[in-house]
Every structure is written in C-alpha cells, then in structure tokens.
Specification:
mainly alpha; globular
Amino acid sequence: MKAYTVFLLQLIIWSGYHLIEWLSKRDHPLNNILMFLIFFYLAIMISNSILKSAKKTFYLTLLSLIIYCTFHITLYYIH
C-alpha cells in the first residue's frame, strides 16, 4: 500500500512540474533542467521518507516518471 501511495504522490509531483513548466515557457532551457532536477529530488526525498528503501524509491520514481512521460507523449501525438 505504501508503494501505491508513493506512486500517486509522484504523479502529483510530475503534474506540478508540468504545470510550472507550462507557465514558464519563455524561460531559458537551463532553468527548465534545473527545475526538473529539483522536482526529481523532491520526488525521491518524499518517497524515500515513506518507503525507507533506496532501491524501491529509485525504481518507483523511474517508473512513475516513465509512465507520466509516456502519457504526455501519447496525448501530444493524439492532439
């Protein structure tokens, strides 16, 4: 159940990143990279505090990021 909770929290974090990225379209690309790294760190720290396992944290973070990116790429091509 903890893994499911972490997965949902990470999807919320990636949604927040996407919203902020959308709001800052005119920013320099380096700023977007730094912002992504901050959100990635936030996702890892929150999930590690809940799961207490670095391995599970890493795998769940990558899984949620891959699923979220796949969802947005699919919607981009459909639209």
